[in-house]
Specification:
By secondary structure, the chain is α+β, with helices and mostly antiparallel strands. It is 41% helix and 21% strand.
């Protein structure tokens, strides 16, 4: 059944207060609810409820007639008054809740995940974001710790005064230990901060706590928003479908994004923890205090909160490096989505299962839309608009219209055309041609967005183009200016002495695909001289791509001019090592498959894999003797610090070691592996050794880390990712028979499955079709237990149209097999259906 945005109607009853009383038991938890309602319209009361055993039901103390279905409880209007209290008791079974939605158990502890529609598996309620109420919660359990939202009033008793929708409800009970700290808000409120983990993990909480305190301070300094309760709790759980959840005052995290020690977590893990802790904390204002009217408005909270966590990470680390990493992610995940059968607008208009719309488009493109808005109105006007947004809508459940209205009212701009960014799916292509005649330089720009499912024609969008002009000698002729493109075409003219090199879309000012006729020579000038770090990196990426494509299509060796330029950047120690590492990283195999597709070439994953290896080897040979000294210069002596400076050096070191491994077969990587004192260095060397065919390192790594779940996830993933494409399915299959392959744990499942699909594309797309069968087998197996994670992992198939007819047929066969599987979940059925239709 499809739900449509246009069908939104407010509920006929409001909820004034919710009181919940839990008596926890693994298979027979009792939930007593006391919910007070007030009438808006005299209609039946229809509440959501799934997998509940109803024990008793009273309205104002009396039994009333009611109807139950698989999904709803209905009480006829005739039995309801202007204001009444509904008391219900239900029984639920957290232990057997393998979907990890609602109340479930993870490693012996009780926890919840209610977003988007998990509360309906806890008790009968309006399970939708526009119904907000204060909560009071009592928990009876024999566990040492019991937590819920808001402030504690007695052991096991919690009061949350801030009205909230069901999706922000949370409960945790178990044997947990807290790391405690304090924060004093700008208003003088003393807040107790706790990070709760399982006993034994308490030495891995420092960084999450540090990130939390920095997030709280930054939120006050940059957005003027203080925290609003006396406690803020974070809990780490091992079994979690997503990254983390912003439940009011009680954030629940996938333990992967909380636990860190130098020995077990990489620099990337630390950066992810920092970003996700900030993201969930920032939701307190953008999500919780101001929430969404309905799930179509998901980007209202997610796009804005991702934008804010990206700003935070840019402030904590290097802003240009952060921007490059964000764009790499955007292109790898969102552009891919936008180009395929799963394309949808930032604000979708229809869905079958909302969990399928927690996507890169809603999140990452949603964040880009906020960034464009800020670029268009300017930072000061953005700040003023945000202040108005918080003032006007605090405590409300809002829409994208409300958000746009705030910007229109505070800036006086008409944003009706800008709003198309929320409505049109697909990535706009921006085609640029230029000309120089009689002292006049002309830039001609055209925008066009391809048709996508349900959207045959697209109207022009407002594109902010930050641009500058560089002279042939590398000197900047025109510093950055923002040009606003709103029509399908735009011509820009400049009076100049000589033809410049345009540096367009600086800082990637809009999520579009830029198509230019730029020469390799011009790209080399930009790589060496652009004042915009993003476009310097972009030039290097385009050079890498054209050299890789030349190798792929014509077997050409990489151009010496490019190799020289690359070496120059890598050896320039005035440049941030993190930036140099990004310049050195070749475009991914998936990126190259997409580039083939864009050029009208059917991608051959095997050939792409080989071309990438050949070019990588050529870079290594070109840098040759310089590598050992360069590697030595990236040493980070002294105790491990996760801060940006040292992490930057380690990221460059890892890239250099990869190159060196191509030359020495792993001699230096072996030394690095043996000398490593932190997981970043150890894992980098581990990857090198696996790629070089080392036969002992996998067992050694496993023996060392067997008891650490998060490190073993890395071991599983790397073992498949680094396997030879011809052996990858066999390796992955063997790993699924490993005693520690707990496929019901989403992190472990993803390690092997994504190791096989996303991280080993040539193995996944093996001409035998074994990769496709492997994925389909595991999707079908997991679907019966955990539809959400299954549906998400099915997106490995979303690019099927790019490939040759044989591969297309093999994928279609697996999609058909999944689609016709008896009892397939709604989640997976929707995803597979959309992929097959398009
Ligand atoms: N709101 C959470 C976040 O962005 C994501 C939770 C999504 N969970 C889900 N089951 N759809 O941090
Ligand atoms: Zn979020």
């Amino acid at each position: 059944q499809t739900i449509y945005l246009k069908d939104y109607t407010p509920t006929p009853y409001n909820v004034a207060h919710v009181a919940l009383d839990f008596t926890l038991h693994p298979t027979a938890t009792r939930v007593q609810s006391r919910i007070t309602f007030t009438r808006v319209r005299a209609e039946d009361l229809v509440l959501n409820g799934e997998d509940l055993i109803l024990k008793s039901l009273r309205v104002d103390g009396a039994e009333v007639p009611h109807e139950l279905s698989e999904t709803h409880l209905t009480i006829p209007a005739a039995h309801l008054s202007d204001a009444f209290t509904l008391e219900v008791e239900v029984e639920i079974s957290p232990q057997t809740n393998t979907a990890l939605e609602g109340l479930y158990m993870s490693g012996g502890m009780y926890c919840t995940q209610c977003e988007a529609e998990g509360f309906r598996k806890i008790t009968y309620m309006y399970d939708r974001p526009d119904v907000m109420a204060p909560y009071e919660v009592t928990i009876h359990a024999d566990t040492p710790v019991q937590l819920s939202n808001g402030n504690p009033t007695a052991p096991g008793c919690w009061t949350d005064p801030h009205p909230k929708p069901t999706y922000l409800f949370a409960l945790v009970a178990g044997d947990l230990v807290a790391t405690t700290d304090h924060f004093t808000t700008m208003e003088g409120r003393e807040v107790t901060l706790n990070v709760y983990v399982r006993p034994g993990d308490e030495d891995k909480t420092d960084y999450a706590m540090d990130a939390l305190k920095r997030s709280m301070k930054w939120e006050e300094d940059v957005y003027g928003r203080p925290y609003d309760l006396d406690v803020f709790n974070i809990v780490a759980v091992d079994d979690f479908n997503m990254g983390a959840m912003e439940n009011k005052g009680l954030n629940i995290f996938n333990s992967k994004y909380v636990l860190a020690s130098p020995e077990t977590a990489t620099d990337t893990d630390y950066a992810m923890i920092e970003g996700i802790v900030a993201h969930e904390y920032f939701h307190n204002w953008t999500g919780n205090r101001i929430t969404c009217r309905d799930w179509f408005q998901l980007c209202l909270k997610e796009g804005l909160t991702v934008y804010r966590d990206q700003q935070f990470s840019a402030d904590m680390r290097s802003a240009p490096v952060q921007r490059i990493k964000d764009v790499l992610q955007l292109r790898a995940r969102q552009f891919r989505e936008d180009a395929g059968p799963l394309a949808h607008p930032v604000r979708p208009e229809a869905f079958v299962e909302i969990n399928n719309f927690y996507t890169a488009t809603v999140y990452e493109k949603g964040a880009e839309v906020i960034g464009m808005l800020r670029t268009l109105v300017g930072p000061a006007a953005y700040d003023a608009a945000l202040t108005l947004y918080f003032d006007r809508h605090d405590g409300q459940a809002c829409t994208i219209e409300d958000w746009i209205q705030v910007f229109e009212d505070s800036t006086g701009r008409d944003l009706s055309q800008f709003k198309r960014w929320y409505a049109q799916a697909g990535t706009p292509h921006l085609t640029v041609t230029d000309d120089f005649k009689n002292g006049e330089y002309t830039l001609h720009l055209k925008q066009k967005t391809k048709p996508s499912a349900g959207q045959p024609d697209k109207a022009p969008q407002v594109i902010p183009i930050a641009m500058g002009l560089i002279g042939a000698d590398g000197a900047e002729v025109l510093p950055t200016q923002v040009v606003e493109m709103s029509e399908a075409e735009l011509t820009l003219r400049y009076e100049l002495d000589a033809k410049p090199i345009p540096s367009l879309l600086r800082g990637f000012s809009a999520p579009v695909i830029l198509e230019t006729e730029q020469s390799e020579a011009d790209r080399l000038v930009l790589l060496a001289h652009d004042t915009d770090p993003f476009n310097r990196w972009e030039a290097s990426t385009l050079l890498a791509k054209s050299n890789l494509m030349a190798n792929l299509t014509a077997g050409s060796a990489p151009a010496t001019a490019w190799l020289d330029a690359l070496t120059k950047v890598i050896t320039d120690d005035t440049l941030d090592p993190a930036f140099r590492a990004l310049v050195l990283a070749l475009p991914s195999e998936d990126n190259l498959a997409n580039a083939c597709d864009a050029a009208g070439i059917v991608p051959d994953p095997t050939a792409i894999h080989s071309a990438r290896k050949a070019v990588h080897l050529a870079i290594a040979q070109h840098m040759g003797e310089a590598l050992p000294a360069l590697i030595a210069a990236t040493a980070t002596p002294g105790p491990y610090s996760p801060a940006a400076n040292d992490a930057a050096k380690r990221s460059l070191r890892a890239q250099l070691l990869r190159l060196q491994t191509r030359l020495d077969g792993g001699t230096m990587a072996r030394a690095a592996y043996d000398a490593a004192t932190n997981m970043t260095d150890q894992l980098a060397a581990f990857g090198c050794l696996l790629s070089a065919g080392d036969t002992t390192v996998a067992a050694a790594f496993e023996a060392q880390w067997r008891t650490d779940r998060l490190v073993m996830d890395k071991w599983f993933a790397m073992s498949v990712a680094e396997a030879d494409p011809d052996d990858a399915v066999a390796v992955a299959t063997a790993l699924t028979q490993h005693a520690d392959f707990d496929w019901k744990n989403p992190n472990r499942f993803r390690s092997v499955i994504a190791g096989m699909t996303a991280m080993n594309p040539a193995g996944f797309h093996h001409p035998s079709g074994a990769g496709y069968r492997f994925l389909a087998d595991w999707l079908l197996k997991l679907d019966a237990l955990n539809p959400q994670t299954t549906a998400r992992m099915s997106t490995a198939f979303e690019t099927w149209r790019r490939y040759d007819v044989d591969r297309q047929a093999l994928i279609q066969e697996q999609l058909a097999r999944i689609a016709t599987h008896p009892g397939l979940s709604r989640d997976t059925a929707e995803m597979v259906g959309r992929m097959r239709d398009a």
